[in-house]
Amino acid sequence: MLAALAGAAWSVRRGYVAVTVVGESMSPALLPGHRVLIRRGCRGLRPGRIAVIAAPDPDPARAWRGRGPAPRDPGAAAWNIKRVAAVAGDPMPPRVAGGGERVPPGHVVVIGDRPLSQDSKQYGPCPVDQVLGVVVRRL
């Protein structure tokens, strides 16, 4: 199940976004209704961190391909929340769609904490221009 995000409020001046988790792909770490504070951009994007990314096209053949950068307004798109498994240059984790030996430049591999999460296992590495930000804390 894709973890969508709703109820976004943000401070443009400070570069933070507060979002409410909808869905269970990150449970037990994050449950539906939990609110998290996101730092916009890719600073701090590394394995183990939780990131908010633009939801991929439901067709795995398209995923994030052929898109421009994700909107910066949290209310303007559907978002997913996933754990970063690998960043550019890291060895490609097993079972990631598209395979390869290393994560390509400008991409991250994102995996939900629940085994049935829809993530890089189905859609391949996510371009970093599809990242809204990195979770800095639960509210």
From TrEMBL:
Gene3D superfamilies in the record: Umud Fragment, subunit A
Domain of life: Bacteria
Coiled-coil positions: none
Gene Ontology BP annotations: signal peptide processing
GO molecular function ontology, one term from the record: serine-type endopeptidase activity
Peptidase S26 domain: residues covered: 13-90, 99-136
Signal peptide feature range: none
Record's protein name: Peptidase S26 domain-containing protein
Organism field: Streptomyces jumonjinensis
